Amino acid sequence: MEAGRVQTVVLDSNVFIKEFQEGRVLRPIARRMKKYRSKLVIPETVLGEVSRITGTDPIATMEHVYQYCKQPITIDRTDEIIEESNRISQKYYECHSPDNMILATAKITGSTLVSFDRDLLQTAKMEGVQAFLPRNFIRWG
Fold first, then answer.
1. Any idea where the PIN domain is (predicted)?
2. What is the pLDDT of residues 89-108, one digit of tens each?
C-alpha cells in the first residue's frame, strides 16, 4: 500500500449476506480495516442485492455496518462505473450483473475487493484489481 494513501475496500454482497445469515464475518474484516485505517466503500448495487436476498432494507443494512465501520462511503452508479461494468461483462461472459457493477466500482475507486466468489476474484485479478477471500484479506498485510 502506498504511503499517505488511504486504502479503500469494497465488500461483495455475499460478505454482507453471510454476515446476516451467520454473523462473525464483518467484525474481523472491520478490525483489519481499522488497524490499517482503511475505508469501506459500499456500492449502491450491493445494498440493493443484500436487500433483495435477505429482505433487510438498506437502512437496516447500513445500521448494521455502522456497528463495525463508523464512516462507510456509499457509491452510486455513475456513468463511468456503468461504462466500465458494461466493458467487463462484454470481456468476461461469466461476470454479469451485479458482479460487473461491484468489480467496476472497485476498479474505478482503486479499492481492494473482498468476496467469497472465487470467479469474481479471478476476474478482478485479471483486471488488475487487488482481490481477496475474506479470510485471506484478514491475514493480509
1. 7-122
2. 999 999 999 999 999 999 99
Nearest one of 116, 95, 103, 128 to 29, comparing CA atoms: 116
Contact 11, 20 (CB under 8 A): no
- Checking if the pLDDT of 2 tops 70, the result is no
Give the C-alpha separation, 65 to 36, whole Å: 18
**Domain for residue 1, yes or no?**
no
Residue 124 contacts residue 103 (beta carbons within 8 Å): yes
**Among candidate residues 119, 46, 53, the one with its CA nearest the CA of residue 88:** 119
Q: Is 12 in contact with 104 (CB distance < 8 Å)?
A: no
CATH number reported for the structural domain that contains residue 125 in this entry:
3.40.50.1010
Q: Spell out the residues 6+ positions from residue 94 whose beta carbon is closer than 8 angstroms to its own.
A: 119, 123
pTM attached to this predicted model: 0.94
Domain-embedded: residue 60: yes
Could you give the CA distance from residue 20 to residue 34 in angstroms, rounded to a whole number? 21
- Tell me if 54 is assigned to some domain: yes
